[in-house]
Amino acid sequence: MNISYELVTQEDQQLILALGEAVNEEFVIPCLSSDGQKAMRNARKGDIEQATNTEIYTSIKAVKNGAIVGYVAWRQGNYIAQLYVSSKYQNQGVGRGLIAEMLKRSGASSIELKASVNAVGFYERLGFQSVDTEQVKNGIRYVPMLLKL
Hints:
Layout: E1 4-7, H1 13-28, H2 34-50, E2 58-64, E3 67-75, E4 79-85, H3 94-106, E5 110-116, H4 120-125, E6 129-130, E7 135-137, E8 140-148
Parallel strand pairs: 4-5
Antiparallel strand pairs: 1-2, 2-3, 3-4, 5-8, 6-8, 7-8
Helix pairs in contact: 1-2
């Protein structure tokens, strides 16, 4: 698959927001209680909008045929705050490619994240390990994970 990886720009914000919200609704929201669904929807919009704030995040988009098909946003050098891949492009190496690009650009020797429960298997296939049991905060379920290189 011919994918290019580029820095996210301010002009990408609406496309990034739409992609993140669509993936959340399809894969994350169904795994949550009604309280968790409400909390996730309230938190995610602001979080996703922040992905283009270069003072906080470094963000990379995956582009195929001029369309954004995924992105990763990280802060503090090695903490992935967001990783979204369009459902049409999942299981095709886009997420793996985004993490590889993040590692190349950040130079990090480890990666930390809080995986949505639906994404734990994906991260485990990449070598991430759970560092604690499943957690719940405001009804949002996640698993703290770490990849040591």
